[in-house]
Amino acid sequence: MTSTSTPTGSTPHFPVAIIGGGLSGLLLARVLIAGGTDATVFDLESGPGARTQGGMLDIHEETGQAALRTAGLYVAFRAKVHPGGEAVRVWDEKGTLVHEEPDTGDGDRPEIDRGDLRALLLASLPPHALRWNSKVTGARPLGAGRHEVTLADGTVFTTGLLVGADGAWSCVRPLLTPARPAYTGVSFIEFDLMDADTRHPEAAATIGGGMCFALGGGKGFLAHRETDGSLHIYSALRTPEAWLDAHDFSDSERTRALLLDAFADWAPQLRGLLDEAEHGFIPRRIHALPAGLTWDRVPGVTLLGDAAHLMSPFAGEGANLALADAADLGTALLAHPGDSEAALAAYEAVLFPRAAETAAMSAASLDMLFGEDPARRLVDMFTGAYDPQG
Ligand SMILES: Cc1cc2nc3c(=O)[nH]c(=O)nc-3n(C[C@H](O)[C@H](O)[C@H](O)COP(=O)(O)OP(=O)(O)OC[C@H]3O[C@@H](n4cnc5c(N)ncnc54)[C@H](O)[C@@H]3O)c2cc1C
């Protein structure tokens, strides 16, 4: 492995090592490198296309959009926004359309394909800033804020600033806190309907041009129309983990039967989404870190994005916060050259209260979406008549 800086003895040294090339790690690297500070991203994947990213993200003005402006990528982002993606529909389980909002083109939550956003961030970095096939297995403090990091292939390097942008199961987090994500009680079974207008016209008509919720009885469908004309659908259930452990989701026909059974009391039009599911079903257990998680300042290391504040996706804020954290940390580091402790303290002073507030909102949204009368309460939230935290 070659380092981008002068080696210390025979061990390569990286001034700033960002573990994780998700949205947060890439945006941080972009802000630092554009500001003249060297940074290197280490990711366990074999390359940028190793995994399909899937799913649409709505990017919020105060967090995600502001971060993209800080990174100088806002114009490139706008060029990739999905026209029509801000349309919203809400169905109840009986198949009654209880709410519909068109995309008027002037909303403040433009939608982008997650893969397009990641590609945009990757293209903004010089190739030497990205180290693929670099799974971090451990890190230990060396004193004076320096850390030694070990990769799965046995390679070791040192760094002056270690940033954990490595998501839900962060291997950097234990340097700061023993907290671990816990199961929220809700799981998604994810599936796609490809080429929807031609092959699945009824499903396409049900979901519409943007985001669609169908909710009732502790269950639901959360669906998006994607830029490639497919429908990306999460069937969501409040269910114990034992229910997931008991099923082999790689058996598509058994999974379809299982889900049709779980949604047996739902309107045929909504159950029809399951009838038409293709490309297999992917189970996703939704985990969260404790809301309001903080840690004492540890020299030379910090966290951002899901590594710092994994939360359920029901407030649609995780990716937005990941981008905002990265922009704030990058800005703080550039503002305190040579004093990363001052930068980390300034960053964490913003990070902790913002994450706590949003995590509480996500938890309240989960209770609302999987509680009593969810479709009506969601509509009341959209129209300002109901505050899930109130
Ligand atoms: C089903 C679902 C739907 C969601 N929908 C939305 C939404 O609509 N809106 C929204 O704002 N948010 C949403 N989120 C949340 C959002 O996806 C995350 O908050 C966001 O991706 C976090 O970004 P990140 O950079 O912190 O972590 P990640 O995107 O998880 O990136 C972590 C990176 O670290 C790498 N990595 C992990 N471990 C190691 C290691 N040991 N060594 C090296 N590399 C490692 C991984 O390969 C990955 O590239 C959703 C989440 C889920 C699960």
UniProtKB/TrEMBL annotation:
FAD-binding domain ranges (all copies): 15-189, 301-356
Matching Gene3D superfamilies: FAD/NAD(P)-binding domain
Catalytic reaction equation(s): a tetracycline + NADPH + O2 + H(+) = an 11a-hydroxytetracycline + NADP(+) + H2O
Enzyme class, spelled out: oxidoreductase
Primary localization: cytoplasm
Chain sites annotated for binding FAD: D58, R114, D306
Organism from which the protein derives: Streptomyces evansiae
Positions bound to NADPH: R51
Name this polypeptide is given: Flavin-dependent monooxygenase
